[in-house]
C-alpha cells in the first residue's frame, strides 16, 4: 500500500522531498545564526542567558500548539480556533477549580473539553463536508463567546492554586524552567512519530493525494478527524500550562495567537496545500519569529511595526511555498 501511494504522490517520501525539507531547516538555522551574530553587535543584552531564557519561555507553550497545527497542515487542514481553544481550556479549568474541584482533575476536564471542540470541528469537516477554514473560523467565534459567557467577561483570579500545580508553569529544574522541558518532550515525541511511525504516514499520504490514499485503503476521513482532535487537544494542554504559569484565566487570552502559530508552521516548511512539513522545521520557524521579536524589542522598535514585520515574514513564507509547489506541479 505504501508503495502505491508513494508512486501516486509526487516526491512524497522520496529523497528530493526530504532534501528540500532539510534545506529549509538548514536555511532557517543559517538565518537565525546570522541574525544572532548581528544582534550581538547591535545590543549587549542579546547574547545573555536571561534573554535566551525569555525567548524560550515566550515560544515554548505556543510551540506545543504549533506541533498540532503542523500535523493538521500536513493533512491538508487548518485551524483558526487554536487561540480561542487555548483560552477555553484555561477558563473551563479555572472555573471548575474555583467551584471546588482539584486543579489536576479540572485541567483534565479542560483538556477533554478542548478535544470535544476538535471532535465537533472534525465532524463538520468529515461528515457534513465543510472545509477546515470555515469550520475553524466559526469555532473561533463560538468558543471565544463561550469563554466570555463562562467568565461573564471578567478575568478569573486563580492565586489560590496549590504550589505543586503552579510549579508546572513557574518552577524550574535547575536553571531550566519546567515549561521548556515539557515543550522539548512534546516536540521530541511528535517529531519522532511523524518521521518514523507507520500510522503517521497516513497523515502525509492523505494531505499529498487524498484520492490515491482512499484507493489504497486509507480511511482519510478518519485521519482528518483525529488530526483535528489532536490539534485542539494540544491547544487545550497549552492552555492548562498558561493557567499554571499566570495563575489566572482571562476570556480574551490568545486572541491573534493563530497568526503566530500558522506563520511558524509555514515558515518551517509546512505547506498550506498539505502533504509536507516537519515538526522540527515548524519549531525553527517559531524560534525565528521569537528571535525577530526579541531583536525588535531590544532595538526599541514600536510594537505596531513589529506586527507589520511579522505579517510580511508570513507573506514571504507563503509566497515561497506557493512558488515551490508551482515548480513541483
Automatic annotation (TrEMBL):
<feature type="transmembrane region" description="Helical">
    <location>
        <begin position="137"/>
        <end position="156"/>
    </location>
</feature>
<keyword id="KW-1003">Cell membrane</keyword>
<feature type="transmembrane region" description="Helical">
    <location>
        <begin position="225"/>
        <end position="243"/>
    </location>
</feature>
<feature type="transmembrane region" description="Helical">
    <location>
        <begin position="52"/>
        <end position="75"/>
    </location>
</feature>
<feature type="transmembrane region" description="Helical">
    <location>
        <begin position="107"/>
        <end position="130"/>
    </location>
</feature>
<keyword id="KW-1133">Transmembrane helix</keyword>
<dbReference type="GO" id="GO:0005886">
    <property type="term" value="C:plasma membrane"/>
</dbReference>
<feature type="transmembrane region" description="Helical">
    <location>
        <begin position="82"/>
        <end position="101"/>
    </location>
</feature>
<feature type="transmembrane region" description="Helical">
    <location>
        <begin position="176"/>
        <end position="194"/>
    </location>
</feature>
<protein>
    <submittedName>
        <fullName>ABC transporter permease</fullName>
    </submittedName>
</protein>
<dbReference type="GO" id="GO:0022857">
    <property type="term" value="F:transmembrane transporter activity"/>
</dbReference>
<keyword id="KW-0472">Membrane</keyword>
<dbReference type="InterPro" id="IPR001851">
    <property type="entry name" value="ABC_transp_permease"/>
</dbReference>
<keyword id="KW-0812">Transmembrane</keyword>
<dbReference type="Pfam" id="PF02653">
    <property type="entry name" value="BPD_transp_2"/>
</dbReference>
<feature type="transmembrane region" description="Helical">
    <location>
        <begin position="279"/>
        <end position="298"/>
    </location>
</feature>
<feature type="transmembrane region" description="Helical">
    <location>
        <begin position="26"/>
        <end position="46"/>
    </location>
</feature>
Amino acid at each position: 500500500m505504501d508503495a502505491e501511494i508513494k508512486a501516486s504522490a509526487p516526491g512524497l517520501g522520496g529523497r528530493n522531498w526530504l532534501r528540500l525539507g532539510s534545506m529549509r531547516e538548514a536555511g532557517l538555522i543559517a538565518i537565525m545564526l546570522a541574525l544572532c551574530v548581528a544582534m550581538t553587535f547591535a545590543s549587549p543584552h542579546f547574547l545573555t542567558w536571561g534573554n535566551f531564557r525569555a525567548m524560550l519561555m515566550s515560544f515554548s507553550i505556543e510551540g506545543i500548539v504549533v506541533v498540532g497545527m503542523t500535523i493538521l497542515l500536513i493533512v491538508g487542514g487548518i485551524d483558526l480556533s487554536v487561540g480561542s481553544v487555548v483560552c477555553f481550556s484555561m477558563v473551563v479549568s479555572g472555573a471548575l477549580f474555583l467551584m471546588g474541584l482539584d486543579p489536576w482533575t479540572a485541567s483534565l476536564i479542560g483538556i477533554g473539553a478542548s478535544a470535544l471542540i476538535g471532535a465537533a470541528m472534525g465532524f463538520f469537516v468529515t461528515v457534513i463536508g465543510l472545509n477546515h477554514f470555515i469550520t475553524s473560523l466559526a469555532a473561533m467565534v463560538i468558543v471565544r463567546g463561550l469563554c466570555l459567557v463562562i467568565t461573564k467577561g471578567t478575568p478569573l483570579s486563580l492565586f489560590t492554586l496549590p504550589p505543586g500545580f503552579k510549579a508546572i508553569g513557574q518552577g524550574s529544574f535547575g536553571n531550566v524552567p519546567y515549561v521548556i522541558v515539557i515543550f522539548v518532550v512534546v516536540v521530541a515525541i511528535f517529531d519522532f512519530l511523524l518521521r518514523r511511525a507507520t500510522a503517521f504516514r497516513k497523515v502525509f499520504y492523505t494531505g499529498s493525494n487524498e484520492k490515491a490514499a482512499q484507493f489504497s485503503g486509507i480511511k482519510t476521513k478518519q485521519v482528518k478527524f483525529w488530526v483535528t482532535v489532536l490539534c485542539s487537544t494540544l491547544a487545550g494542554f497549552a492552555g492548562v500550562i498558561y493557567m499554571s504559569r499566570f495563575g489566572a484565566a482571562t476570556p480574551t487570552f490568545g486572541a491573534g495567537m493563530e497568526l503566530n502559530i500558522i506563520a511558524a508552521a509555514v515558515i518551517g516548511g509546512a505547506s498550506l496545500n498539505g502533504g509536507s512539513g516537519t515538526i522540527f522545521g515548524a519549531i525553527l520557524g517559531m524560534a525565528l519569529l521569537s528571535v525577530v521579536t526579541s531583536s525588535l524589542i531590544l532595538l526599541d522598535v514600536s510594537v505596531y511595526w513589529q506586527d507589520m514585520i511579522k505579517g510580511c515574514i508570513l507573506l514571504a513564507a507563503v509566497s515561497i511555498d506557493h512558488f515551490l509547489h508551482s515548480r513541483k506541479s
